[in-house]
Amino acid sequence: VQLVESGGGLVQPGGSLRLSCAASGFTFNSYSMRWYRQAPGKERELVASISSAGSSTNYADSVKGRFTISRDNAKSTVYLQMNSLTPEDTAVYYCNAVVRLSVYWGQGTQVTVSS
User: Fold this and answer.
1) Radius of gyration (C-alpha) of the chain in whole angstroms
2) Bridge partner residues of 19 (DSSP)
């Protein structure tokens, strides 16, 4: 299993970014996917999750209405569209999958929101 995130960077407050996570090594369309984030000095937290078919999504209260998780099963890729970003969204964002009871993480992508 391999998860490779991309799309992070530096953005001004109020801006937008779209993160991508390219997955391989497992039957992508059979598993739900998740995005987590970890800010400096804080624990890793769940940001959003999406079911295997993409029909069900869930979000942390802190990002509801601003972030959208989606997936393209044909491309084995999950996305996180982040709008109205604030400095509090600054963190390393990780893609996550639980495949046959084993937990897999990507390497993470840094998102920095600053003027």
Assistant:
1) 13
2) 80
31-68 pLDDT, tens digit each: 999 999 999 999 999 999 999 999 999 999 999 999 99
- Please name which of 74, 91, 73 lies closest in space to residue 17, comparing C-alpha atoms: 91
- Which residues pair with residue 108 across a beta bridge? none
Neighbouring C-beta atoms of residue 74, cutoff 10 Å: 8
Q: What is the dihedral of CA 40, 37, 62, 101, to 10 degrees?
A: -140
Cβ neighbours, 10 Å, residue 112 = 15
- Nearest CA to 79 among 17, 30, 37? 17
Burial class from Cβ neighbours inside 10 Å (0-12, 13-18, 19+) for residue 83 reads middle
The first and second tokens of residue 16, run together, are 């937008």
77-115, pLDDT tens digit by residue? 999 999 999 999 999 999 999 999 999 999 999 999 999
The rounded distance, in Å, linking the Cα atoms of 110 and 113 is 10
